[in-house]
């Protein structure tokens, strides 16, 4: 049973436009959520995180939104750049478990010039 | 530079042979993790260790073994009992403090024929 789901395996966006990547979770104990970016044959790189006491966290072009009632989070990238083309994973950690992460299946983002 | 080093980058083995993947970190992180990624899938947790000389099974530990004799090192052995060993293996580390992101190495691609 997948506790973290990314239902869109791929997303294509024009350069300069907004990219919105979505993630759903089922475990009510999750209270810390992260997004990682991954290029082929490399390890994931931490991008941005949010704890359950917030509903929004922003870092430059990246914003993560959390809707606890819907058990849904999203990553917005504005404006999208060709260098953002990668696979994006969302991950979640349960209450008090530090960094025990459960990952979604990933969404491949392609930003076209 | 601080970081996580995985070696080798590519590894080829014959079926029936055990193989050990190396992971070293100089970030002074308490916890270390091994994940496996298969094509088109997310990361699945194999083993983790939150303190020296102690480790716990993750979701897919069968056919794998680990040791944590030093804080900096967390080698993973893929044994002949692992039925589908060909995969991309990722090592990660992090602090066990609350809401702390994991940092990943660049992975080892293991091919067993």
Task: State the main characteristics.
heterodimer, A: 113 residues, mainly beta, six-stranded mixed β-sheet, five-stranded antiparallel β-sheet, globular, B: 113 residues, 50% strand
Short account of what is shown:
The complex is a heterodimer of chains A (113) and B (113). With 113 residues, chain A is mainly beta.
Set out the fold topology.
The complex is a heterodimer of chains A (113) and B (113).
Chain A: E1 4-5, E2 10-14, E3 19-25, E4 30-38, E5 45-51, E6 56-59, E7 62-67, E8 72-77, E9 86-94, E10 102-103, E11 107-112
Parallel strand pairs in A: 2-11
Antiparallel strand pairs in A: 1-3, 3-8, 4-5, 4-9, 6-7, 7-8, 9-10, 9-11
Chain B: E1 4-7, E2 10-13, E3 19-25, E4 31-37, E5 43-51, E6 54-57, E7 64-66, E8 76-78, E9 87-94, E10 103-104, E11 108-112
Parallel strand pairs in B: 2-11
Antiparallel strand pairs in B: 1-3, 3-8, 4-5, 4-9, 5-6, 7-8, 9-10, 9-11
Overall mean confidence score, pLDDT of chain A: 93
SSE ordering of chain B: EEEEEEEEEEE
Main sheet summary of chain B? 7 strands, mixed
- Summed up, the helix count of chain B is 0
Helix content of chain B: under 10%
Based on the structure, what is the oligomeric state of the protein chains?
heterodimer
Class per helix and strand makeup of chain A: mainly beta
- State the order of secondary-structure elements of chain A, H for helix, E for strand: EEEEEEEEEEE
Helix content of chain A: under 10%
Q: Tell me the structural class of chain B.
A: mainly beta
What's the gyration radius of chain B in Å?
Answer: 13 Å
Instruction: List the chains of the largest interface with their residue counts.
Output: A-B, 26 and 31 residues
Tally of alpha and pi helices of chain A: 0
Q: Outline of chain B, from the CA principal axes?
A: globular
Let me know the largest β-sheet of chain A.
6 strands, mixed
Portion of residues in beta strands of chain A equals over 45%
Number of strands of chain A: 11
Please report the total strand number of chain B as a whole number: 11
Average residue pLDDT of chain B? 92
């Amino acid at each position: 049973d997948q506790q973290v789901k990314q239902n869109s395996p791929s997303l294509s966006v024009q350069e300069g436009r907004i990219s919105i990547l979505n993630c759903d979770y089922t475990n009510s104990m999750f209270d810390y959520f992260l997004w990682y970016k991954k290029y082929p044959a490399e390890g994931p790189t931490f991008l941005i995180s949010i704890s359950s006491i917030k509903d929004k966290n922003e870092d430059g072009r990246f914003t993560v939104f959390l809707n606890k009632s819907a058990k849904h989070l999203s990553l917005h990238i504005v404006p999208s750049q060709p260098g953002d083309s990668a696979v994006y994973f969302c991950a979640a950690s349960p209450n008090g478990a530090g960094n025990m992460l459960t990952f979604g299946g990933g969404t491949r983002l392609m930003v076209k010039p | 530079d601080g970081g996580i080093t995985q070696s080798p980058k590519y590894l080829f083995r014959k079926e029936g042979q055990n193989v050990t993947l190396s992971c070293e970190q100089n970030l002074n992180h308490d916890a270390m993790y091994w994940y496996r990624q298969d094509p088109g899938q997310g990361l699945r947790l194999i083993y983790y260790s939150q303190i020296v000389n102690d480790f716990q099974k993750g979701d897919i530990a069968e056919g794998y073994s680990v040791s944590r004799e030093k804080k900096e090192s967390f080698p993973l052995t893929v044994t002949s009992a692992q039925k589908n060993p060909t995969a991309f293996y990722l090592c990660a580390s992090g602090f066990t403090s609350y809401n702390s992101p994991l940092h990943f190495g660049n992975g080892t691609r293991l091919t067993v024929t």
